[in-house]
Amino acid sequence: MSQVDNLIPDHIKSSLSEAEVDSDGEINMDRVPFAKNTIRMDLKQIDKSLKAMSAQQNKENKRNMMESDENQNRTCTPVNETEHPGQPLTPTANLKVLFNAMSPELRNRDEQKAQYSDEDNNVSLSQDYEFETIIEVPITAEAENKFGPSRKEKSLGLLCQRFLTMYPEYPEKGEKIEICLDEVASELQVERRRIYDIVNVLESVEIVSRVAKNRYAWHGKRNLGTTLAKLKALGDSERFGEQIQKLKDFEFNRELEEQFGRSDPRLKANGVDADFSIFGESSLFNQALRKDKSLGIMSQKFLMLFLVSKPKTVNLDLSAKLLIGDANIDRTENAKFKTKIRRLYDIANILTSLNLIKKVHVTEIRGRKPAFKYIGPDIDVPGTDVQLTCCSDGCHRPSTRHSILDCIQNNRVAKIIDAYKESTPRSSSSSEGEGDDKVRFSRHSSFETLCAVASVETNKLNSSAPNSPVKGDKASDNKGALSDSEAKLPTRGFVRRRPGLKVDDLSSVEKTADAIIIKTRPQPVKPAMKQPTIIPLTKEQIDAVLRSLKVPVPVKKNQLTDATTQSSPPVDDQMVMNEGYEGVTEVKEEQQVEMKELNEKTPVVMSNTPERIGPKRPAPTGDSIPLEKRVKLTFASPSSLGDDKSPVPMNPEAVLRCKKTADVVKPSPQRALHLTPEFSNPKVSLVPGGDASNMETEERSQGKKIEIVISESGSKLVSPVRRSVQEVVQLSNAQTILIQSPISTSATKSPTVVHLGSQPTTILQLPVQQGQQQRLGQMATTTITLPQGMQLLQNGQHLMQLPISLNSSVPNSPRVITYTFSSPQSSHPTSFTNAQLLSNQNSNKGVGNLSTLIRPVASKATASPQAGSYNAAPSLGNQSPIYLRNSSGGFVPISSVAVNVPKVIVASSNHSHGDLSSSVLITGDTS
DNA sequence: CTCTCCCGCCATTCA
DNA sequence: TGAATGGCGGGAGAG
């Protein structure tokens, strides 16, 4: 140490804090970062470097001061810092030189000392920001790293934070704040290049918007909620959630193979191992153009991934793959991947500083992985300050190279706008925004078009009235064929209606061009039962958002029912309307029936009343119906039938409601059909803290929700004629039944009755295909997922308890697991072993969410011949099979059982996902 | 070693 | 045409 000590000039020594100088005057090099490795150099060299640096720094400071005065309002080109080779001009460059000369810490201290000795304290902050920071940092072990412009201190996130502190988070209405990039760069003492990075991301969330060269308008976070909502709507419309889920399945399966040597056949059968070119098909994820690689657009896509994911956690690898559009990209070799990761780090750091995301660690099969979790405003809950306007400040802003929300340069948006213009002659009356706050920033040459678009959007918002021409046209077209206007719509989907769809027990029916809403009796929404799954936007808002983006949305006849149709994950289906939204208040109270159209490409009506649908629905001829459809229905429970508070008259018809997003020309990317969405569905709605009695009450008082998913298999491995139905029946806030039954359209005639809880009678009727699946080569399975404790009929007489004993080690050793359950009425315990980790994609926040599915593998399959291709069956031994009873009095034997174990895959640092809820998956023969 | 991500070259876009 | 932007990847700090 003494040797090193001798190399340190006295003036540097004196600048060291006491913390680094021992009582005997000897420098404690252990507390001087980098000193050990860098301080061995000639004193003359050090002094020379210091002098050069000091002189240069002073020169730089003077220049900056002059420029600062000069550039108050001018747009200027940054000084070319490379004009002086060998003579770095910027502090950063100086420091780089210094780093080679001596410890940066020592150098900084020397600088600080010189700075503060030569100048008074009136030096502008911009001149000595770093120094000031350094001076005031207490010298602690943690703070040591902050001495000097360490790498962390120069991080983009920190820089962004400093940027944000320069302007009000929520500026007053009408307050116009302009940003000069030069000033900011000067203020923050960074290169312009870094400012561009920050501004681009801020622009992507509409915190700023560009108004002219070198000038931006500051909006703060006033538009943040709206922007996020738009991103979510766009992501939903593009069904990115499904894609993400598919990719997660794919990744999970691959890891499964790597770790355990086998993948899940069902996932494979559902196409999870299909190539992921679909990620590149979407224009939103098309990286072909330079502008599509913009940091801002990338930021929006990145945010979108969070907004549509369940849970809102994604890792960079997954994001990069999605953004690149190649799931098989080599993450270690591929330069493209590395670059993408770099950019995502940049974005993530900025978004982190915006408190939109935070870094977490996710434990997966292969271990702990870093990831980011969305922590921004929850746009899934009511109360979100989402305005009807494109932007909350009334400024129709999204017109930039760096926004996928750009409705000017986005062709699809433009086409939609044109279509609306053609079909809707209207005078542009603007009601958006606050009249006194319509600040429009004109940067784009197509500003006029921008205004036109804004007007169109406004009209669209206003056109929610029943007499909208567009609506009328669309609504009148209910013959199953595409109307001209529909065909013109540049949408990804198209409407395929089923005329005359009827559903029993409907309290109201809504028919629109692309949607059918089936309403049943209203059921009172108990405050305590408010679901965590709330869609914050009204239908009008969603429509407006979708229209402003690129997704044609149905024009509703009755807006009272529209708020329920936002495409969103099943979790969010519990729609509790926000009272703050006028015109939808009634809906709020009676969200009895929800038809959720999850697949925008295939708006096909599905009903659980086969006898009515069947005749009007042509028998499936395989490829005759290239549609995927999901319809979610909620049926009022008998006890609630008398409480009809619905203002909507009963109407025994169903309304097809589906977004017309299918691309008529381009075949829709095939979608995997799997249980994932349902399993992950927080719609299970386990209310934390809710007790059993409450659930029981709810079970009786509330209606059941049935989600029917009819989809053409997205897998290349299965027959194209295969069709499946998934039904999720929410029996209460705590119980969900999921039945997956490949059916033909005429096969939904034999509902299965599931006996639940204390309900003595029928609770659920599920269409079960009979005798069709084998002929059609379909997977003959009926899958029911029951939460822990749910009871099933056994032999049509007994309720069978299915207690699941979970071992905490299960998640870590999924290969060999034995589960045993028994019926209280039966002395025959049933067990199965050799369960297989099936899926990890369903980790959701909240109690009862499922992330990992364990199901038995085929080794002990005892499936009956009717079990078809399904290869999983429990070892039921010699005991009597467990049956599900169908409505016709027959019984459907259960052929397999699986268990949903607690979510273990995703574990944030606070372990908020470590619930031990579980459920049972029962597979039965459908014949 | 991998993970992060700063840095600035230089291509592209803009005015 | 020069200035304004910003894509990109080398390479180094951090862990």
UniProtKB/TrEMBL annotation:
GO terms for biological process: negative regulation of DNA-templated transcription. Residues 151-220, 290-376 form the E2F/DP family winged-helix DNA-binding domain. Its main location: nucleus. Residues 53-92, 420-439, 461-491, 680-700 are annotated as: Disordered. GO terms for cellular component: RNA polymerase II transcription regulator complex. It is found in: Nucleus. Keywords: Activator, Cell cycle, DNA-binding, Nucleus, Repressor, Transcription, Transcription regulation. GO terms for molecular function: DNA-binding transcription factor activity, RNA polymerase II-specific; RNA polymerase II cis-regulatory region sequence-specific DNA binding. Belongs to the E2F/DP family. This is E2F/DP family winged-helix DNA-binding domain-containing protein. It comes from Dreissena polymorpha (Zebra mussel).
